[in-house]
Write a structure and sequence with these properties.
344 residues, alpha/beta, Quinone Oxidoreductase, Chain A, domain 1, seven-stranded mixed β-sheet, six-stranded parallel β-sheet
Amino acid sequence: MQAVQFSEHGNRAVVEYGAHPDIDPGPDEVRLRLEAAALNHLDVWTRRGLPGLDLRMPHIPGSDAAGVVDAVGERVTRFEPGDRVAVSAGMHCGDCEFCRDGDPTLCVDYHVIGEHTRGVHAEFPVVPEDALVPVPDGVDWETAAAAPLVFQTAWRMLTTRAELRPGESVLVLGASGGVGHAAVQIADYLGAEVYATASSDEKLAYADEIGADHTVNYERENVTRAVRADTGKRGVDVVVDHVGAATWQDSLASLARGGRLVTCGATTGPHPETDINRIFWNQLSVLGSTMATPGEVDDVLDLVWAGELEPRVRATLPMSETAEGHRMLEEREGFGKVVLVPDR
């Protein structure tokens, strides 16, 4: 089969698309005939290399994909050849105290397909049965591939971790990215007043189109001053920050008293300076969030399949041009997700 792969960590030049040995599914695994896949910033970080990440090379990256079941292992019961499915990449052990307590996202062995183990950006990827969700007839492959990772992440952040309520206000940083554009839509769906930031007026126009009530071009304006001016110096109830060090102080300063900052990533770095005085004096909550439980995945994808929420696609590229997709993410070009399709 043909697959996206790299044999060492590094810049975009290490990304290749070429022959890789076919993979047979194990007893609990499913092989797909891939129809579409999608990129995430996680693919960029995995390619560059992360502390403690020890991958078997060559590594096939990718956490988002959708296609038709091609073959199943002998113990697989949920799917059969011909089924339409998408990958939900969070994996857990099922046996630790956190899994038994009902929150597998806290699993002591939690890992993400494509980051910690072989990914799905290949013609015929193989994944565990538990990593798949059904895709209804009528849902296009781009939507099925682009939605799972970012929409489950944003859904858990806002519903479970931040416990967003109708009528509250939310600031979504980086609204043009995968998680950001999902968070704007989900916050709007939940009845919140949505503030969104992006680096260009074109991106902000897209954010407005999908549910933002207020927009801030962070290249021209200070986000905190803009938010506080618009809220009568009060600030917002919730900030969605997946940017990290570059925005951390502004995120805290944009919160109302008793507000919640929820984070799922640190694109600009994991070690920001923080204002402890502001946190305790204003009684702020800082909440981490990772992926989602299977039930949360089902809840948000039901809304995607029904058309209530919609992943936007900034570009669709052949898999042989995956490195170009990485460039688009690294240079923050466009709005929404980058989708890959096999070179057939």
